[in-house]
Design a protein that fits this description.
This protein has 138 residues and is of the alpha/beta class. The chain has 5 helices and 6 strands, in the order E-H-E-H-E-H-E-H-E-H-E. The chain has a 6-stranded mixed β-sheet with strand order 3-2-1-4-6-5, with helices on both faces. The longest helix has 10 residues. It is globular.
């Protein structure tokens, strides 16, 4: 079983984004890494991603919503499973290890724990469990 890691981002070079950490960790673990880059990103976004060894896939969002890029990104992923990581999240060691294992092909809900006070309001109790590791139909 193989795993792809998928991130949707805008301006991944901003200091508070985790895109480079996610990419480096995925690549070091030998995982397929796909980054969907919002076409509204600043000009330095593409060279930034290329410097860390990532080929960005551009998409144009529909208004302020970019979640539809998830479907487009899934079409690019090559793994049997997909770990969807937002550009402001940082998976822990246990999640990286679990996502790299040969696990049953089913959807896994993961607890999102805010470690930054800016995100505490976004992840209120009751919404912190999200499906983020799931099988990809080929």
């Amino acid at each position: 079983m193989t795993t792809s890691v998928l991130t949707i981002t805008r301006d991944p070079h901003k200091h508070w984004k985790s895109t480079s950490k996610i990419a480096i960790e995925a690549l070091l673990r030998g995982l397929d890494y796909v980054v969907m880059l919002d076409s509204r990103s600043e000009p330095e976004a593409i060279p930034y991603l290329e410097r860390i060894g990532v080929v960005p896939h551009l998409f144009t969002p529909d208004g302020d919503y970019c979640e539809f890029a998830l479907n487009e990104g899934l079409g690019i992923c090559t793994g049997d499973m997909v770990l969807w990581v937002s550009d402001d999240e940082e998976p822990g060691t246990a999640l990286w290890r679990f996502a790299s294992m040969d696990i049953p092909k089913m959807a896994y809900r993961l607890a999102l724990i805010p470690i930054d006070e800016r995100r505490t309001k976004a992840y209120q109790p009751g919404i912190e469990l999200l499906v983020r590791l799931f099988p990809r139909d080929k």
